[in-house]
Amino acid sequence: MMKRAPPVSSSLFSKSQNLWLIWKLLIILSIIFLVMTLARIQFYYDTSPQSYSGRVHRRSQLPMIDDEGFEGNPRIAYLFLVRRDLPLDFLWQSFFENADAANYSIYVHSEPGFILDETTTRSSFFFNRQLSNSIKVDWGESTMIEAERLLLQAALENPSNQRFILLSDSCVPLYNFTYIYNYLMGSSKSFVDSFLDMKEGRYNPRMSTVIPMRKWRKGSQWTALIRSHAKVVAYDDVIFPVFKKLCKRRPPLDSSKGKQNLKLQKQHNCIPDEHYVQTLLAMNDLEGELERRTVTYTLWIQSATNMETKSWHPVTYNYATSNPQQIKNIKGIDHVYYETEHRTEWCHSNAILVPCFLFARKFSRDGAMRLLTQGV
């Protein structure tokens, strides 16, 4: 008589079924992880510096400007970024009146709706030079660099504009028009104050998928660009959105907000206009085409606010401090030291040692008037 095989216990069958489900779950999770990894690699590739350079220069992203092989008289585009009017227009009137009109263009970004005419400016050189698409600008916000880009876009529509100098409403020229024209046109490079920013907590790690920390730069917003670099800034559609989202100014201290204030103070204090152009050009591997310094002088001092916090502020030159000796000292500067890079930048234009600065800020009305009357 044959013995019957013992029945398979239900518990053993259940264990086998559970084991199969576990393996099935592990396989599914492994596939999901693999897909996510491949997607992340592809995303990094799409936003890496190498692929980014190609995106910036895609022909489809540039306006239809026929400037290839431009022949003619090159101009400097003077781009004024102002709050409302131009308080030092009388000084600029003197600057432009002895210049050849074929050598310059003027563009002004003012508050929306403001018109430059005989009722709002004393200089006819600024009549109707305001942008029609200006925006409201807040200091320390991305609107500042958005306004700069609007100025560049407007100036790029004229193929004869070959140099682009950004100026504030408190800037003054240190030399006559001809000297500045020859200085800028004599160099094939842009003048962009740019250095490594390793000390301050302005870099937001959330930027790292697009902007690696090694490419993070800081510097003065007052730049002088050649045309090819102006295009990179004006038509960038990758780095600017990152700045708009992740580079924000920390709110001022407000003790009345208690714990909420402490939370706000932990945010990265990122000032977009001090990082954007520098970081953008570094991302495009264009630093070899720069004189890594500004041509606009600013004297910075550290001061304490009423909240007992220290911050840096630009000195304003009034009548007393706008004396000939002070201006002579500024014009005599021939190098700049960058502490974070242990780098001394000797000031050159086309490999020739030159004074560092062509413009200076911040000047009050009476300070600018003294420059004009004393012929400094």
From TrEMBL:
The keyword Repressor does not apply. GO terms for cellular component: membrane. It is a single-pass type II membrane protein. This is Glycosyltransferase. Keywords: Glycoprotein, Glycosyltransferase, Membrane, Transferase, Transmembrane, Transmembrane helix. It is found in: Membrane. Signal peptide: none annotated. Pfam families: Branch. GO terms for molecular function: glycosyltransferase activity. The chain crosses the membrane at residues 21-45.
